[in-house]
Amino acid sequence: MKRLVILGGGESGVGTAILGKKENYEVFLSDRGIIKDKYKAILDEHGIAYEEGQHTEELILNADLVMKSPGIPKKAVLIQKLKENGVSVISEIEFASRFTDAKIIAITGSNGKTTTASLMFHILKQAGLNVALGGNIGTSFALLVAEGNYEYFVLEISSFQLDDIVTFKPDVAILLNITPDHLDEYDYSFDKYAHSKFRITENQDESDHFIYNLDDPKTMEVMEKMAIRAQINPFTMKEANQNSFANDEFFYINDSEGGLKMRINELSLIGKHNISNSLAAATAANILKVRKEIIKKSLMDFKSVEHRLEAVATINGVKYINDSKATNVNAAYFALESMKNPVIWIVGGKDKGNDYNELLPFVKSKVHSIVCLGLHNEKIIDFFSPYISKIVETDNIVDCVAQAHQLAHNGDVVLLSPACASFDLFNGYEERGNLFKEEVKKLS
């Protein structure tokens, strides 16, 4: 019996443990931190051996195969020792993909992954397909493979998960965009990070499809140097001669069967970036032969992902929008770009080496006040104070919402789009967004 060691006792680790046991591996799970009670209960229920609060090397280095949680750095000493010992270290998506023949639609990118994956799932569900949504969103891919019998998987995939693939080969791969993020894990090299994203297509062949963004500079730069074997399907908002194209008025998916055409204002998702995300999902659905009427209806009735440009409430003529999932500058760029009304912008948190220059045009033209939400706001204040006269500091959500409420006038938008991670004050962007929504609802 082969020994499978799993490093990390979160969603992906526990899912892999269950699938490993089902596939007759001897399974051991190790987490250097404390495993959540709900996951311990699942491990106990399945009779899976585990440890927490430490990594016991003699129980790990004797593995035949190791699944590493995406949160564990590649440079960790234990990972280096395993590799020196010739032990294969893989990601959960690699492991799970070995035990399913279902069609896989895999989605990566610096921004828009969750929205696009959720929209893709919505379209396929509306088409009546036997489909599951997982990966970096919701349920782990491994658990879905272990406990379900799906014919299609829509997977949101991070660069960290792609770093540890070997044979993972999606039928349809979508690369939305590549902007600087997580560079601390890639030796501060944008090129290394970009090549990590492109691993989504490295095992694809002529029977597979690669969907990519013709408007994304880094994607196009890397494309020029790569030999991609999959059938390529670009989408764009700039070149009208492409099959998947949108302009300010219309949205097109052209093919030999008449294609799909709809007005931009019929799309349920707002903002240019979301038109781009919708193009990617519609292109994939068309490749999978989903009926045009179903694609169109799904694009019209899809509900936005929680914490991503989520309309919370309109109070005294002021619209409150929760975009807590905007944990980097590029995501905040898209949020500000899509705003039509004057903005009170809530920004701040754990800075990831942010460069705010690209936000300046939108801040100058759309933002009249800034509310900082973080422990260290000096960088934001120093950068934006020459352009915005009203900047206030807060270090908790109650004061933050109260200050934004005071600054807002009829017709304004209060936008929580922090451009920073949340871990200085919150357990994650979800907690930040949920607390924001709770406080906003108390205003009405």
Fold and architecture overview:
The chain has 17 helices and 20 strands. It has helices at residues 11-22, 37-45, 57-60, 77-84, 92-97, 113-126, 141-147, 159-163, 190-198, 217-223, 272-287, 292-301, 329-337, 360-366, 378-384, 397-407, 429-443, and strands at 3-7, 26-31, 49-52, 65-68, 88-90, 103-108, 131-135, 152-156, 172-175, 209-213, 231-236, 244-246, 250-253, 260-263, 310-315, 318-322, 343-347, 367-373, 390-394, 413-416. The radius of gyration is 22 Å and the shape is globular. Helices cover 35% and strands 22% of the residues. The chain has 3 domains: 3-90, NAD(P)-binding Rossmann-like Domain (Rossmann fold), CATH 3.40.50; 94-301, Mur-like, catalytic domain (UDP-N-acetylmuramoyl-L-alanine:D-glutamate ligase), CATH 3.40.1190.10; 310-443, Mur ligase, C-terminal domain (Protein-Tyrosine Phosphatase, Chain A, Alpha-Beta Complex). It is an alpha/beta fold. The strands form 3 sheets. The protein has a 9-stranded mixed beta sheet with strand order 7-8-6-9-10-11-12-13-14, with helices on both faces. The protein has a 6-stranded mixed beta sheet with strand order 15-16-20-17-18-19, with helices on both faces. Strands 3-2-1-4-5 form a 5-stranded parallel beta sheet, with helices on both faces. It starts with a strand and ends with a helix.
